[in-house]
Amino acid sequence: NAERYKLPSVEEIEDELKQTPNLKIIKQRISDVFQVLGDFKNRRDPDRSRGDYISILTKDLCSYYGYNEYLIQKFMSIFPNGTELLEFLEANDQPRPVIIRSNSLKTRRAELARNLINRGMNVDPAAEWTKIGLIVYDSQVPVGATPEYLAGHYMLQGLSSFLPVMALAPRPEETILDVCSAPGGKSSHIAALMKNTGVLYANDANMQRCRAVIGNLHRLGVNNAVVSNLDGREFAKIMPQGFDRVLLDAPCSGTGVIWKDGSVKTRRDSQDVQRCHTLQRELILAALDSINANSKTGGYLVYSTCSVLVEENEAVVDYALRKRDCKLVPMGLDVGVQGFTKFREYRFHPSLCLTRRYYPHVHNIDGFFVAKFKKLSNSKSA
């Protein structure tokens, strides 16, 4: 007979929380409660409900990892498996590796790696799915100040930000819009794939951040770009059907990059997420309306976020499918786990299995989401 686990009372837990929490006790209790939930019939305390266990587990996860209850409950529903939930929470506290993207407008990865190794940097090709990324293990010189950096041979950027551009698959001579382009990593990557031809609109709603875009595009030798400082929702009015491809890396809650900003753990609440969700829905429709469905080479939108929340990802994509004449298409990337087609009370279009989620504990990159649309006609109704 499995050993039964005695759950402390709510009063005991509340008394405990008034004192400095003993992390060792909390960690042990988290692990015990997960074991009970895994074999509830045999291990439960007969006087306590599943709800009691989950409520204590939620409080313990909040105090151990430093989150508010809102986010812990969100993460518990995305990762119902206890082991995976803990792996995700642990990974959120670990910095991601330092990654650089070699700039094909000026150099090749192998040549760049050789030069950087000679300067005292320990680098390796980054991941099997990219031909241009390098991982930096350690360096005797500041990575953002080498002669190669200043000459624009590489950009410092997270691996996750390679994905939306790879999915977008820009072609030379196209007209392309990057709606939220600061600080310019993705835009400069797009320009390199366009081989500096065509026209790239690198837009950002924040003027300060536009300055970073301008600086980076100059340094990296991009000369097919126009930098604009507009609200992304304006493009449908200013340049309706003006683009072959659009990248919308939407503003979001940042729940995929908590290691960069720990304040997200306690600051983000349902109002924040609702605000993001509303803006994302407005931006995605404007992005679709600024694409020309009759483009000879394109007609594609890539939507991405650095959030793991369904409200900001699948729910926004599903909304766009209902509102416009478009469909989801494969992204041509082998990496990532499938997006949700159903989640709690949500029932999404079955094609949402073509979207991809990325997790720090699975792919060692930021939490991220990518979806690729093909616009079927310029009609404004689905």
From TrEMBL:
Instruction: Write out the GO cellular component annotations.
Output: nucleolus
Q: Where is the active site?
A: C306
Q: Is the keyword Transferase assigned to this protein? A: yes
* Keywords noted in UniProt: Methyltransferase, Nucleus, Ribosome biogenesis, RNA-binding, S-adenosyl-L-methionine, Transferase
Task: Note the coiled coil stretches, chain numbering.
Answer: none
Q: Tell me where in or outside the cell this protein is found.
A: Nucleus, Nucleolus
Question: Would I find Ubl conjugation among this entry's keywords?
Answer: no
Annotated Pfam families: Methyltr_RsmB-F (PF01189), RsmF-B_ferredox (PF22458)
UniProt: S-adenosyl-L-methionine binding residues = C180, S181, A182, P183, G184, G185, K186, D204, D231, D249
Which BP terms in the Gene Ontology apply to this protein?
A: maturation of LSU-rRNA; rRNA base methylation
Q: Which GO terms of the molecular function aspect are on file?
A: RNA binding; rRNA (cytosine-C5-)-methyltransferase activity
Residue ranges constituting the SAM-dependent MTase RsmB/NOP-type domain according to the UniProt record: 88-376
Question: What's the superkingdom here?
Answer: Eukaryota
Give the family from UniProt: Belongs to the class I-like SAM-binding methyltransferase superfamily. RsmB/NOP family.
PANTHER family in the record: 28S RRNA (CYTOSINE(4447)-C(5))-METHYLTRANSFERASE-RELATED, NOP2 YEAST -RELATED NOL1/NOP2/FMU SUN DOMAIN-CONTAINING
The molecule here is called NOL1/NOP2/sun family protein
State the organism named in the record.
Wuchereria bancrofti
